[in-house]
Amino acid sequence: MAAYYFDSSAIVKRYVDEAGSDYVEAILDDPSHVIYTSRLTEVEVASAITRRGYGARLSDVVIFATIREFQADFVGRYRALDVTREALTCAVAVAREHRLRGYDAVHLATALDLLGQGALRGVTHLTMVSADLALNAAAEAEGLASLNPAQGT
């Protein structure tokens, strides 16, 4: 069983065709992979789908259908993690340490919180999947493996 933590920049690639979409789909389509993300991702991805959809002049019907598909996956495929008080405290520290944007720090802290509870959840190794170079570098500095789907690495 491989465990992955997807931030919003990676998950959105399943619903919006862009660099790295095939890479993301290959990971997500493997039923042996366990996919974790933050509850923040629900808002971030719905927003990204909406903004990109209107930017591409897609119809409301297409945009809303894509959001519904994402929401079904969010409930059925992804393991959405609550943002705990401990994760928020950690987010402040990693934001300062690695100069991350706010929600990127929350994503990293949530992944680290999950790994800290690894014995409880059966997770001993976690790979951060993000198209954000700074977040991936911070994840690696904190001891996580990272993958950038936009670069195929």
Structural descriptors:
Rossmann fold, 8 helices, 153 residues
Task: Describe the protein in words.
This protein is α/β, with parallel strands linked by helices. It has a domain at 2-82 and 122-147: Rossmann fold, CATH 3.40.50.1010. Helix content is 57%, strand content 13%. It is built from eight helices and five strands, in the order βααβααβαααβαβ. Strands 3-2-1-4-5 form a five-stranded parallel sheet, with helices on both faces. Helix 3 runs antiparallel to helix 4 (60-76). The chain is globular and about 40 Å long. The two termini are 20 Å apart. The mean pLDDT is 94.
Present the secondary structure layout:
Elements: E1 2-6, H1 8-11, H2 21-28, E2 33-38, H3 40-55, H4 60-76, E3 79-81, H5 85-98, H6 102-116, H7 118-121, E4 127-129, H8 133-141, E5 145-147
Parallel strand pairs: 1-2, 1-4, 2-3, 4-5
Q: Fill in the CATH topology of one domain.
A: Rossmann fold
Residue stretches low in confidence (pLDDT < 50, at least 5 long) are none
Report the average pLDDT across residues: 94
- The name of the CATH superfamily of one domain reads 5'-nuclease
Structural class: alpha/beta
Oligomer: single chain
State the gist of this model.
With 153 residues, the chain is of the alpha/beta class. The protein is 57% helix and 13% strand.
